[in-house]
Amino acid sequence: MAASRTPLLAIDDLHVSVEGKKILNGLTLQVRAGEVHAIMGPNGSGKSTLAHVLAGRPGYEITAGTVSYEGRDLLALAPEERARQGVFLGFQYPVEIPGVNNVYLLKAAVNAVRQQRGLPEVDAFEFLGLVREKMKRMHIEDSFLSRGVNEGFSGGEKKRNEVLQMLVLEPRLAILDETDSGLDIDALKVVAAGVNSQRSPERACLLVTHYQRLLEYVVPDIVHVLVRGRIARSGDRTLALELERRGYDWVTGEAA
Amino acid sequence: MSTPLTARIVEEHANASRALPPAGPTAARRRTALAALTASGLPTSRDENWKYANLRPLERLRFVPAAPAQPVAATDLPAAIPGFARYVFVDGAFAPALSAALNATATAVTPLCAAGDAAGTSAAPAHTPGADADERFALLNEAFATDGAAIRVAAHPEEPVRLELVFVASADAHSGASYPRLELRLESQAQLLLIERHVSAGPGASFVNSAVTVDVGAGATLHHYRLQELAVRAIVFDTLCAAVGRDACYRLHGINIGAQSARSTLAVRLTGERADLRLAVVALGEHQQVQDTYARVEHAAPRAHTEQVFRGISAGRARVAFNGKIVVGSEAHGTDSRQSLRGLLAGPEAEIDVRPQLEIYTDEVRCSHGATAGKLDENMLFYLLSRGLEPEVAQRLLKWAFLEDVVAKIGVAELRRQIEERLALQVPEPFARAESA
Ligand SMILES: Nc1ncnc2c1ncn2[C@@H]1O[C@H](COP(=O)(O)OP(=O)(O)OP(=O)(O)O)[C@@H](O)[C@H]1O
Ligand SMILES: [Mg+2]
């Protein structure tokens, strides 16, 4: 069954530097379709770097290692191609883009994927209906439709917007970088419900988080601890609980 | 201060007596302007506010008014704007066949060649163009212009008056210059929506020198949309001098897209208490275009308000410049002025220069200014790419977004649509607009 299939995402011995500074140091990780992996780790350990490298952000130097996605070389693809192939990054710090309408961006993004698959563009009216329905699920108010991308959104609203985009785009691999940070308790539940609704045997999710609380709602299959650019420890969900109790010193000490 | 250039201008003026009759109502005015021009000379790139203008072509340009090169048909013109009466001028001369009927009711639109000084519209302009050294190109226009529009708007109880002036440049610079000219006066409490477009017919290597005077009377409201969309080989100098009276409101929207080389000088004086000015300029340069704007706003009365906005994008090897100066005179206490000037560099070889200047001669004022020039934001760009947008589309989208807040303020829907189409930088569909219920 699951174990026999090739992983959806296979990262092997990945080394990455930024401006000459080594950040990822031989990171190896396999994610199979259907799985949710949580990635935890101290500030500056390289979690966002990993997320950005997977999404194709420029400015990172990959000095060694490979990443394959659906059996193909992910690193060879341009960022927009990765998105069209179903890779989605929920940003830790979503940027505001005044003047570009939220719905326009959503539609352009959906049409980019559809074009890739040889499908016609979405019907504008139906699409709006679909967006409204998902907005309701994410508790996003109507004024969102007429606003610029993340323009004037609060921190929590930006995070919910990231999840809304994910719900609309239905990616095969979602990488959510601290999407739970800065959310109030109700918003956390809403976001968790959004993520859970995406779980399916075909899809996978990498959840970067600092908090065990999210993992109460979105139960991960595996928890990894990233320390100084490599996975220092992996385990089941109880690892998150143990980290909460004992702190990172426990793992970083071991990894040193 | 006679220079080889002014000597040649005088000579061409003398030889053009057929186009410029030595007698008649405007002859004296022409002579005066020519004398003033000879005394002052035209600006050079050594002059303070002319560093970014492209003045080199002056050496080879001819100054006599060009005879229209070819008949211009209605189909050569931009699509009509519903509700606006259109008046067309070809190479500076009124073209009645392409224009709405002239009327003399609340609004008087008079071709200057017919009116001369007799119509009284041009009597005692509130502000004499050419008085300031930066307005010397207006003198050139005054010395050579043979026609133009004199518009006088009286207070009207109901709807604002809607007029569109289309200045078409058809002649090649070899055969002479085109001198669009507009003298506009809004009487107390009058309301006018005015579209002023400068377009080309034919191949468009024209030399255009336009001069506009605006007088917004007490309590009057003027929304003035100026579009410079000349063909890519045209050379244009433009001078607008405006005076805004007590409690009057002037909204000036400039959209500069066309021409090979364009210089626009906007001089606005707020002469009445609580005068309210919003001056917004959008300029796009690509290839080797030069788009240079100098906007000088003078607060000469108390408690007036200015908002000056510039958005410019420079791509290719273009040079885009905006020099925005606000002068607060000693009598202008209670002035409130804001400047927001932003330039976007969209190519490694492009140039952009935005310069805010503030001169204050009184206390008790609120003046703020912000000026930035930079490249497309890489975080924004990556965000869009990470959502699957093509890099090319993402860049166009961000350029559009950069202009959006200014374009959104264009209140005439059809005009805004046409401008969006031109500016839209070919984005698949209008995306700035709300898609809500
Ligand atoms: N552009 C950059 N230039 C220099 N250093 C960088 C750059 N980007 C990241 N780094 C460094 O790389 C290290 C890892 O950063 P990263 O953002 O991946 O950490 P993180 O695990 O996501 O941390 P956090 O939990 O605080 O979000 C940090 O020390 C950071 O300062
Ligand atoms: Mg991070």
What characteristics describe this protein?
heterodimer; A: alpha/beta; 4-stranded antiparallel β-sheet; 12 strands; 37% helix; 27% strand; B: 437 residues; alpha/beta; 10-stranded mixed β-sheet; binds adenosine-5'-triphosphate; binds magnesium ion
Description:
The complex is a heterodimer of chains A (256) and B (437). Chain A has 256 residues and is of the alpha/beta class. Chain A has nine helices and twelve strands. In chain A, the strands form three sheets. Chain A has a six-stranded mixed β-sheet, with helices on both faces. In chain A, strands 2-1-4-5 form a four-stranded antiparallel β-sheet, with helices on one face. In chain A, strand 1 and strand 2 form a beta hairpin. Chain B is an alpha/beta fold and 437 residues long. Chain B has two domains: 269 residues, no CATH class; 61 residues, no CATH class. In chain B, helix 2 packs antiparallel against helix 4 and helix 5 packs across helix 6. The C terminus of chain B is likely disordered. At the A-B interface, helix 2, strand 7, helix 3 and strand 8 of A face helix 5 and helix 6 of B. The complex binds adenosine-5'-triphosphate and magnesium ion. Magnesium ion binds next to helix 1 of chain A.
CA radius of gyration of chain A is 18 Å
Which class best fits the helix and strand makeup of chain A? Answer: alpha/beta
The stretches of 5 or more residues of chain A where confidence is low (pLDDT under 50) are none
Cα-atom Rg of chain B, whole angstroms?
A: 21 Å
Query: What is the straight-line distance between the termini of chain B?
Result: 65 Å
Share of helix of chain B, binned: 10-25%
Mean pLDDT of chain A: 93
Instruction: State the total count of DSSP E strands of chain B.
Output: 20
Molecular shape of chain A:
globular
Q: What kind of sheet is the major sheet of chain B?
A: 10 strands, mixed
Percent of residues in beta strands of chain A = 25-35%
Across the major sheet of chain B, the strand order is: 2-1-5-8-10-12-14-16-18-20
Q: What kind of oligomer do you see? A: heterodimer
String of helices and strands of chain A = EEEHEEHEEHHEHEHEHEEHH
What is the overall silhouette of chain B? Answer: globular
Structural class of chain B: alpha/beta
Sheet with most strands: strand arrangement of chain A: 6-9-10-3-11-12
